[in-house]
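STRUCTURE:
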């Protein structure tokens, strides 16, 4: 928001000098967010959120209440500044009030249902961490490069909804009032002068998005969809549907983990139909022993690609160009086929590092390079899990945990969604927790008994509902570090 210099100085002076006398602070919550990378755990956010409530514009020296006109004027100015700061600002966006104070303090706008308008909720990062405006998290000081900025860039949005038509048929209005062809929106090229044509491009915003599921046009085996993603394919009776379980592993295959894979997939370990249990390995190039990959393929396991570089920058993947995705994934397939001597064209699956989907760009590349499926999109934890679906039609669930970069356009690609796991230790008693997409990202699982209970509970949750495939995705280092977890997994496979 644009605020006058005088108002900024006045507001900053009030906050910096009078906060102890003018405000009461109530600690409302402590949030500890822990995320798992491909090989190591990253602690990203420890926030203490404090809600600031205006008590008075001047320190009170007695028990009397100041009803003076001067006080009313100052309160009015204070509220005007807040409303100006919060105008058209997303409710979950944090910003700074000053660049002169430490880089730990930020605020966000909170709707004030009692008196109307907005108030400000303040956040201070713990000592040693600074607030990253771009990532909207507290991060290590050496990683934050925007302490000189007050806010994220304010982006103009297009005018898709107007009381009356303002553009010709086939055109839509930019944020500045200009009308351009609808097809030009969300094409990765800026056509509006204010750039608003490349802003509203989410799954449910893109004006050129894939259509919603049409069962008359989407027929197995070429296509499958359902309105909410929970429908059983082929309208089969639930008792006739086998419960499928996918065991997938991400990253390099080498001496550090090949012993784990041999233990999990012993030849005498059979499915109820008499077939041997197999896994899928999304292989990254770095540190991979391709002789081991060749042996896994020889034994009937599926090989997919996880990139060449496995770069640890999430933005590299969610904002990557077509050539980035082409080099990383198609290049990884060429390398694997060459050095693991896989010549049967069976490398058809992709998983993005950090599950950072690359939007339409990634799926355009996959379609061009004849990849068949992706397994990077997480489906939020729900009462009924999601079945795999075709991206010819719109994805049936919200874009969850993928940096908002899910594909919005139609693509001839299948999606094997990762249904989040219920990680509660005692589901019958514990309060509801957010789900975890990879088994190795369930940060509250500390011992093998907890691990065994969790996979049993999630198997039963799928089996007793619509029997959508249960995805158990691992970073092999997690099984290696947590002693006894491999045996717990094997014991569960035997009993199941």
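SEQUENCE:
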């Amino acid at each position: 928001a644009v605020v006058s210099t005088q108002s900024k100085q006045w507001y900053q002076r009030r906050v910096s000098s009078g906060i102890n006398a003018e405000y009461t602070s109530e600690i409302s919550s402590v949030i500890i967010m822990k995320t798992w990378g491909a090989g190591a755990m990253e602690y990203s956010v420890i926030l203490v959120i404090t809600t600031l409530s205006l008590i008075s514009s001047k320190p009170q020296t007695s028990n009397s209440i100041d009803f003076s006109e001067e006080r009313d004027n100052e309160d009015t100015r204070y509220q005007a500044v807040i409303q100006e700061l919060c105008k058209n600002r997303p409710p979950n966006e944090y910003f700074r009030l000053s660049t002169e104070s430490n880089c730990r303090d930020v605020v966000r706008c909170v709707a004030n249902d009692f008196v109307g308008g907005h108030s400000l909720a303040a956040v201070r990062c713990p000592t040693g961490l600074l607030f990253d405006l771009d990532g909207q998290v507290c991060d290590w000081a050496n990683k934050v490069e925007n302490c000189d900025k007050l806010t994220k860039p304010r982006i103009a949005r297009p005018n898709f909804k107007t009381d009356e038509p303002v553009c010709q048929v086939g055109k839509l209005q930019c944020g500045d009032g200009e009308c351009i062809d609808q097809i030009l929106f969300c094409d990765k090229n800026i056509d509006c002068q204010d750039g608003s044509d490349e802003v509203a491009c989410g799954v449910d915003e893109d004006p050129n998005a894939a259509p919603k599921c049409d069962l008359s046009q989407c027929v197995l085996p070429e296509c499958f969809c359902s309105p909410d993603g929970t429908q059983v394919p082929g309208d089969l009776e639930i008792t006739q549907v086998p419960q499928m379980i996918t065991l997938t592993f991400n990253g390099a295959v080498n001496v550090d983990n090949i012993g784990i894979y041999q233990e999990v997939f012993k030849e005498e370990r059979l499915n109820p139909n008499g077939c041997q249990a197999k896994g899928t390995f999304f292989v990254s190039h770095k540190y991979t022993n391709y002789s081991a990959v060749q042996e896994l393929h020889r034994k009937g396991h599926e090989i997919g690609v996880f990139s060449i570089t496995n770069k640890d920058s999430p933005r590299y993947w969610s904002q990557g160009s077509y050539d980035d995705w082409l080099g990383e994934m198609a290049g990884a397939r060429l390398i694997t086929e060459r050095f693991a001597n896989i010549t049967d064209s069976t490398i058809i699956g992709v998983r993005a590092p950090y599950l950072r989907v690359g939007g339409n760009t990634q799926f355009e590349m996959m379609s061009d390079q004849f990849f068949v499926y992706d397994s990077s999109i997480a489906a939020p934890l729900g009462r009924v899990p999601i079945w795999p679906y075709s991206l010819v039609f719109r994805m049936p669930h919200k874009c969850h945990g993928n940096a908002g970069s899910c594909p919005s356009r139609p693509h001839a690609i299948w999606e094997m969604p990762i249904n989040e796991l219920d990680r509660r230790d005692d589901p019958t008693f514990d309060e509801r927790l957010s789900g975890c997409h990879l088994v190795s990202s369930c940060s509250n699982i500390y011992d093998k008994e907890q691990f065994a209970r969790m996979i049993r509970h999630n198997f039963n949750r799928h089996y007793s509902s619509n029997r959508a495939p249960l995805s158990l995705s691992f970073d092999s280092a997690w099984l290696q570090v947590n002693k006894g977890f491999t045996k717990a997994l094997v014991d569960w496979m035997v009993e199941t």
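REMARK: Residues 5-22 form the longest helix (18 residues).
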